[in-house]
Toll-like receptor Tollo like protein
Amino acid sequence: MAQNKIGNMTKGCFQDLTSLKTLDFSYNRIQSLGHSLFDDVPELRVAKFNDNHLTDINGLFMNLRYLHTLNVSRNNITWFDYALVPTELKTLDIHDNEIDGLGNYFELELLMNLRNLDASHNIIRELTPSSLPNSIEMVSFRSNRISVIGPFTFMAKTNLSFVDLRGNAIRHLDINAFRLKSIPPNQPLPEFLLSNNTLICDCSMEWLQRINHLDESRQYPMIVDLGEVVCNVTLPRQNALLEMSLTKPSDFLCRYQSHCFALCHCCEFDACDCEMMCPENCTCYSDQTWNTNMVDCSLRGYSHVPHRVPMDVTDLYLDGNDMSHVGSHSFIGRKNLRVLHLNNSNIHIIRNRTFNGLQNLLVLHLENNHIAVIEGHEFTNLTKLQELYLSHNRLKAIKNESFKHLNYLQVIYLDHNHIAEFNVWILGYNKALIKVKLGHNKWICECSFTERFRRWFRKHKPIIVDEGSIRCTYNNSTTMHLIEFSNSTCSNFSVIPFTSAEFVEEYMSVMILVPMLLILILLAALVVWKYRNSMKMWIYNKYGVRLFEKNDYPAESEKLFDAFVSYCKKDEAFVTQMVAPELECGLPPQRLCLRYRDLPTSRYMAETISEAVECSFCSIAVVSEQYLKSEWCIFELKASYHESQCNRRHKVIIILLNKVDLKELEPDVRACFKAALIIHWGDRRFWEKLRYALPEGRNHRHHMNCSENKLSTTLRRSSLSNSIKLV
């Protein structure tokens, strides 16, 4: 009954055809079928209703237990569920409808026997494990709107042999979306078609480009059209469409702002080398394994190399900035850096050791800058460099040894500069060269130079990319193709202008370097002068040498103690537990006379304190709020001050435990403070400052242990006590 104009069919049409096995009502105008229409043909096996106007098949075929083929393609069906067809169905064709999903409300995937399904040219948006029966063998989802394929969608489909997913809206795929149960070695892998999708190949998609080589596990299908799959690769400053079969693992990148590896234990601190932190105002990308780590800081207005560039960076884009010069050790520690872009960055000078530490650098872009001179040391450590771009600079002079050590150099571009004379035959040491550009320079037309240049050119002609633009200049105006330049021609040209230019260039370099050297010396002297005290203190604590100072302290026999320590009773614990042990047991050890520990209590206390101060090289006052409220403490401070006025070698040191407002002190106490050396407790280098202020100690050359020092101090206390008693 195919290819007629049948409109609708109702119950009773087949009441006399109970043995009917096959129905073909394709290419008609059928809009609906009666719900009990097929009750009269229970043995129906094949039903074809394709190319009609059906909108619904609910309640039509589910009771036909012998039905094995159903074709309702090219209709207007908008809804489908596996409950609408019998479980014995083996072939189902529903292509070219308006179905937006394969429903499975009653979870019939285990009961269905469906083997072949054509659901192409619909508007299906998502596939899940329940979207297909477990018995399925071949299925087509071509030209739908599928954007999501859930994990393990095909896992339980053990008979699967073919899946067509071409022409959908798939952008991302999880590797588990195509995961299968392990296929026995004697069975072929299922074949999938995936072309004509808009795949976004970020770091989560790297597995796809090698899926056809994951044959050891035999748990993934074979993508037979992988060569036609196009991948949208997100690279810094560009989006590239690449064939999946031509991509590399380094092409699959994801953006990141910060990343801390599992084995990194310092991420909570600022200076952490194993933490990947994207610099401010930059964009960073990495692949899944972090073997590729791109940092894009181009066109960001930087005047220097950004701070905190990740230590594991592999590709660094700094082009389009305004750097003027790149300082020494700017990239130290970036041992994995392979590609560095510094082009278009207004660079005038490359410092000595600018590229120090980049032992694995392969590509260096320095084109379109203002570099005038290559001194020979700039690329010393770049032993693995393969490509060097110096085009469109202002190069006038290149030292002959500049490129000698670059044994792996394959590409060097020196075109569009102001080079007049450079021994290009030196490039013969670079055996790996395959591309050289030398054109658009101001080569001299001097006979011996052009002859050697032409000999080298004839030998290396295959690697010269811009042969036609290599010209020499004479009389500062006329140019001639250097390769065609003959000895008879060159003998007529003057080379004086070039010699003069070389002389001026050398002279100017000296004139620039000498003032710069003087400025550096002056700056160094100013820095030394400003930080002279800190430097002297550091040298003393490090090496025991007092720089530019003579020892004003008298011989050991003249004084009993190195220092008299004045403090109030409430601060005794601080003095006896902190200050005294550190100084008496340190190196060099100091002999201290402590106010409450060492002086006897008597009615002659004032005389005792004065005697103790006189018997000490210097005085230490531990000043707190309680100290300034004690009359005895003030007396001790004044006694120390008086001794310093009478004996210029006696130094008064004040250890401030609290802040003191000098304006609130009495005039005579304020005078004591102004004459003393004040050290604040809690200063970053407190102990170094205190030791530097004290005398060198009588045991500087022979270090006593703590017990020896205390014994010696005890003997001197006894001497002091006897002296006081005699008074």
Remarks:
- Residues 494-505, 700-705, 707-717, 721-727 have pLDDT under 50 and may be disordered.
- Residues 156 and 328 are 61 Å apart (CA to CA).
